[in-house]
Each structure stands twice: as structure tokens, then as C-alpha cells.
Design goal:
Blueprint lengths: L2 H55 L6 H14 L10 E5 L5 E7 L2 E2 L10 E2 L2 E12 L3 E5 L8 E3 L4 E4 L2 E4 L10 E3 L4 E4 L6 E3 L3 E3 L5 E2 L5 E2 L34 E4 L23 E3 L8 E4 L2 E4 L2 E3 L3 E5 L1 E6 L3 E4 L2 E5 L9 E6 L9 E4 L5 E3 L11 E5 L7 E4 L5 E3 L2 E13 L3 E4 L1 E11 L3 E4 L8 E7 L2
Parallel strand pairs: 6-9, 6-33, 7-10, 7-33, 8-11, 8-34, 9-12, 10-13, 11-14, 12-15, 17-20, 18-21, 19-22, 20-23, 21-24, 22-25, 23-26, 24-27, 25-28, 26-29, 27-30, 28-31, 29-31, 30-32, 31-33, 32-34
Antiparallel strand pairs: 1-2, 2-5, 3-4, 5-35, 16-18
Helix pairs in contact: 1-2
Amino acid sequence: MSTTERHSRERGQALGIFVVFLFVLLGAAALAFDTGMVMLEKRSEQNAADAAALAGARFLPGNTATATTRARAIATKNGYTHGVGGVTVSVNFPSSGRIEVNIGNTRASIFSSLFGITDWTPRARAVAANQTSSGGGFAMLALDPTGCPSTVVEGSGTIRSNGNIQVNSSCTSGDRAFRVAGNGGLYLEGAGIGCNVVGDASYGGGVSHNDCNPANTGADYMPDPYAWPNLGYPMANGEFPGPPPALPAPIEIVSGTGSIPAACPGGTTPATHAAPAKCNFGGSYDASKTWRLHPGYYPGGINLQGGNFLLEAGVYYIGGGGFRAANVGLTSVDGGTTLDHGVLIFNTTHPSVAAGQVVLQGGVAQMNLYPLSAGEPWDNFVVFQDRSVTLTVEIVGGNSDMQVRGVVYAPAAQILVQGNAGAQTMDQLIGYRIRAAGNGGTITVAYDENFLPGITLAGLIE
């Protein structure tokens, strides 16, 4: 065989090896490309399955039909509609309070079909459940996502918190999201609690004690634990369940003498929805007079500035005008109604009366308010200000002790808690912003689970 013939044959063999290698290389590239696309598809399916399971879990364990509908609606929103384009979205309930969502899809191969792989079938699975807790884990929660600062602790008094402090602001400039200043003290009472700040914290000089230095900065944002549907009823969106209640029973005088103010229930011209007016006990404090108020609808608001007042158990629905009790004795009592024990001050608007503040200001007499506890959706809220009202809720101490037990909730407004010579006790503060200040005294946010709502939070478990 000549040299020329041998070289020609070697070139032919090399070409054949190159073709085979090129075929293998192209096949590997095709598989890698399609595999990458399938992985992206599976990730997209997993995100959709997670979101669908969380959405459906919020309606468990009582309503599996709505849970199924909601889960599939969220899957559709994320691009996976059951029965369309080869997509399957199956919803199962493996046990009470749990939902399983499986999303499947058939995806045609792009290059792999050249090698006999005509399609891919990525799948994703998520399991979520509703889990009940008290209070959502926080004694104080500031919802403002950007405030600089959104939470301030200052003054010369003592602040004691028996639960976590959560600051949702991401601010890292100026006074930062969370500011502790003054010459008072901030104490965290109990093991395993802390100060969680999405942004950053700043500290002023002269603070006598600060358990939040350092704070846990860069923390996760925490959603409002009482926003719909965690409590499962419209009030958590600032809407009272149903229309306003009936007008209250007439006010009674328990001790002393005097006439009922004209616009108050039992007065000469009591307020109505069509003719709103403030129930106004003005004037200076008069310890010789004690009045008994009844729950119901107060169109135009309530102003208590003269006397001692007993609030019969129930809901005080304030339609415009606000609720102010300043330098008076104020106590919630058990009136033997179907809503036993405490009260709820629900502050909202009226079509023809501007909203007013909720102000609870202590003085020389004690102020003791306890929340309702009767199996109702609004149990353990003592002040609930709807989301359309942005006016500051003020709880101001005096020389006497003051208890406003339960939850003070103002998701669109600042909550101001200001101490004085006496001691103040609350259980949970959730507001758009929070400011705790004062000139002495002790403010305790007790976070007592006996005075906190039980809430249901959906979470992924698989």
C-alpha cells in the first residue's frame, strides 16, 4: 500500500471519529440545555405550589372546598391552570388542617427530541398547614416598612417588655429604624426574647439600661399577625363584622347627682346615625360622681373628662369623633351581658363626622380596662382602630396606676405610650409606628397569653 493510500485512509478514520464525537457532544449539549430548562420549570412549579398551598391552608381545617378553589386560583395566577396545556394541579388533604398541592406539566423537548426524548414531565409538591399561636410572637410590632425611625424608646422612665420587639422598617440612615435614647431603661423580661429590626438601630447617650443593644439588625420582615385572613374575619381589615350595633342603653348615674349630657344615651337629644353628636362629659374631674355607660353605637364619639365611669361589658363602636378619657376614673365591669367581662373600643369613621383619636389619659384616679373574652372574633382586643384612621392612639399615664390589658391595635397609626409617676400595664402593641416615652414610672408590655388572641398562621411543612 502506498503512502498516499495510507494517509487517505487515516484521514477517513479521523473524520469518522470526529463525526461520532461531534454527535456525542451535540447530544450532551442538547441534554444539558433541556435539563436546564426543565430545572427552571420545576423551580417555577415549586414556587407556584408553595404559594398555592399557603393560600389554601388559611381556610383549614373547616373549609376544604374554599381551600381547593383558592389554591388553584393562586396556581393559575402563577401560570399553572389545571387542565390547560397539559398542566395538572391536584389538591389533597392528607390530614386535618393540612393541604397538599401537586403541580405537573408536560414540556416538549427542544433539542433532546433528536435523540428520542420527545418531552419532559417536571413535578412539584408542597404541603402547608394552619398552626395556632397566641399573639404572633411579639409584645410590640411596628409595621411601617420605611420609617426613620418607626420605633422610639425614650424618656426617663422604665420600659419592660415580656415579649419580642419587632421593627419592620428597613431604614439604615438618620436615627435608623429603631431608636433608644433618654436616660431611662429598656428591659427584656424572660429568656429567648430580643429586638428584631429589619434595618438598623441607633442609641443615644445616657440610657441607664438597654437590653436591645445590640439589636438583631437585618432581621426578616414580619407581616401583621392580625391582618386578614390570620384571624379569619373582616374586622382584621378594619371592617367591623356587620353593620354598627344598636344604640346604647341610657347612661345611669351610680353615685352623686347630675343630669346626663344632651347628646349621650338617655340625654334630651341623644345622638343617632342620622344626627351624630359627641357624648360629652366635659369639665373638671369630680370624684363624687360615678356614671355607668353601656356598649353600642356612639355616632360622634365619646369625651369623658369629669367624673368616674364604669363601662359595661361589650363593644363600644365609635363612629367618628374618637374616644377620649382624660384624668378620670375608668373601669370596665361585668354587666352580665352575653359578652362578659371587658370592653372593646372600636374606633372608626362616620359619613359626616371626621374620625377622632383614642386617648386614654390617667390622672389621680385609676384606669382599668380589660378586653372581652366570650368566644367572639374580637376577643382580647381592647382598642382596635381601623385602617382608615391614621390618628395617633395615646395611652398616657398619670399619678395612679393604669391597666389597659389585651391588644392595642392601630395598623395605620402611631401608638404613643407615655409613662408618668404611676405604673402602666398593657399586653401587646401593634401599630404602624410605636413610641414609648415618659417622665418616670414603669411601662410594662406584659405579653400575657391570657389576654392575647389565638391566631392561625399558615406555614409550609413539606
